[in-house]
Automatic annotation (TrEMBL):
GO MF entries: cytochrome-c peroxidase activity; electron transfer activity; heme binding; metal ion binding
InterPro entries: Cyt_c-like_dom, Cyt_c-like_dom_sf, Cytochrome_c_Peroxidase/MauG, Di-haem_cyt_c_peroxidsae
UniProt xrefs under PANTHER family: BLL6722 PROTEIN, CYTOCHROME C PEROXIDASE-RELATED
Native source species: Zhouia amylolytica AD3
Function description: Involved in methylamine metabolism. Essential for the maturation of the beta subunit of MADH, presumably via a step in the biosynthesis of tryptophan tryptophylquinone (TTQ), the cofactor of MADH.
Pathway annotation: One-carbon metabolism; methylamine degradation
Protein name: Methylamine utilization protein MauG
């Protein structure tokens, strides 16, 4: 036999072996051999397990008593009430659900498609893209610290995380699912049946319910805590955590000239109110009425929820329709004159703290320096590499 034939036979044999192995491992993955790991029985960092198997939030801000003792912009002020008390298993189950495109009608879109951990749980787009490439009108907000929020969506139309998520899950433009189809899908995935049983013991029958799905996802979202930025270290008394320029920026931020802290009130960097700023829409787009619609109130036309500024460095572009690409452009907006971008045919009730602070270029630069000290991703959750549904977790807008 000549050498060519030997090599050829070798190649054919190896191809055969590889194909066989490929088929076998595919089979293993899809069949009962694929085991999801047991759900975590420890709380994520930033939480402490109590005797009832509940994760309770822990942070230095809990040492401070009232929200207003030290005035707006004061350092040692408390945080608003937090959503906590979920079990470690519910939080971990929520993590799988959050990343799983099985929650959408056709298995292509997960929450993480538009809320990507790599992008501060936003997606880097001015307006998010949903089912079949449909372009939404608003940008995806960050999900860090949503456990402290009382209003959800840019226009504040939802009052809880549970209520909020029905929006994307069941809207045609986003995940395009229906409650029945969602239940049907999850109840037909054995791995999920096991995991839900683990996260919700003491139920009567082993059937996944909508309430359990909402609770688990809420539990995961509420675990996304970011309170260890350099700003926080400074606030707790470690003066060296910020350099001189950043401290200058902080002082501009909380001055009654710039008035940022009146609305972006530390330590959450939002007072959770709706404010009309008169932010321009991207070219050619009509004015977004914002809170006017859900609150049925003309005075709220063009009003949006004051967003938290934590991890703001990670979530460009900025504002409800993402029309500012950089933080520098965003802070410039506040000094370009009250109502300067309001369309001629509109009369908006611009908030009284939006005025003409006439900040210098230097002060605007310092504001940006300061905003970047609010970055902290130390409690970043682990992104699951394999999902209970067997679907892939790779579909991100960004
Ligand atoms: C197609 C993209 C997309 C998908 C998928 C998506 N979201 Fe969103 N999300 C957005 C956009 C855009 C907004 C803002 C919409 C608005 O304000 O009208 C938003 C808003 C939110 C908010 C409100 C945050 C705040 O500060 O008000 C939460 C919480 C949230 N999404 C969680 C989720 C969860 C949980 C899922 C999965 C069940 C999900 N999202 C799926 C794009 C998406
Ligand atoms: C009257 C309340 C108010 C004041 C004062 C205010 N803001 Fe805002 N801020 C808002 C609201 C509301 C939005 C969202 C507006 C929108 O999307 O149309 C916002 C958005 C932002 C954003 C973009 C956030 C994001 O997620 O895209 C940044 C950055 C910001 N503000 C920084 C500042 C700075 C710096 C100052 C001081 C110069 C300031 N703000 C003063 C209410 C306020």
């Amino acid at each position: 036999m000549d050498i060519k034939k030997i090599v050829l036979r070798g190649v054919i044999f190896m191809t055969f072996v590889c194909t066989l192995w490929g088929l076998v491992s595919l089979g293993i993955k899809d069949s009962a051999y694929y085991k999801v790991p047991q759900l975590n029985c420890d709380c994520p960092p930033g939480f402490k397990l109590n005797e009832n198997n509940e994760c309770i939030a822990q942070n230095l801000y809990m040492a401070y008593t009232t929200e207003n003792d030290h005035g707006v912009g004061g350092l040692k002020t408390a945080l608003p009430k937090v959503r906590d008390g979920f079990s470690p298993q519910q939080i971990d189950l929520g993590r799988y659900l959050f990343f799983d495109p099985a929650l959408s009608k056709d298995g292509t879109i997960s929450c993480a498609t538009c809320h990507d951990p790599e992008k501060g749980f936003s997606d880097g787009l001015a307006a998010s893209v949903g089912m079949n490439g449909y372009q939404l009108t608003r940008s995806a907000p960050s999900l860090w610290n949503v456990a402290y929020l009382k209003l959800f969506f840019w226009d504040g139309r939802a009052k809880s995380l549970e209520e909020q998520m029905k929006g994307p899950l069941f809207s045609k433009e986003e995940m395009n699912n229906t409650p029945d189809n969602l239940l049907n899908t999850l109840n037909n995935i054995d791995n999920y049946k096991v995991l839900f049983e683990e996260a919700f013991p003491n139920r009567n029958n082993n059937t996944i319910t909508l309430e359990e799905i909402y609770t688990a996802i809420t539990a995961f979202e509420s675990s996304l805590i970011s309170l260890n930025s350099r700003y926080d270290q400074y606030a707790h008394g470690y003066h060296k955590a910020l350099n001189e320029k950043e401290i200058e920026g902080l002082n501009v931020f909380r001055s009654f000239v710039a008035r940022c802290a009146e609305c972006h009130t530390p330590p959450l960097f939002t007072n959770q109110q709706i404010a009309v700023l008169g932010v321009p829409e991207p070219d050619g787009k009509p004015l977004d009425p914002g809170a006017e619609i859900p609150y049925n109130d003309k005075t709220m036309r063009g009003g949006f929820k004051v967003p938290s500024l934590r991890n703001i460095e990670k979530t460009a572009p900025y504002m409800h329709a993402g029309n500012f690409n950089t933080l520098r452009e965003t802070v410039q907006f506040y000094t370009d004159g009250r109502g300067h971008a309001v369309p001629e045919n509109e009369e908006l009730r611009i908030h009284w703290h939006i005025w003409e602070p006439e900040l210098s270029d230097d002060e605007l630069d310092r504001l940006v320096d300061f905003l970047k000290t609010l970055t902290d991703e130390t409690f970043m959750p682990e992104v699951p590499t394999e999902l209970p549904s067997g679907l892939s977790n790779t579909n991100h807008n960004s």
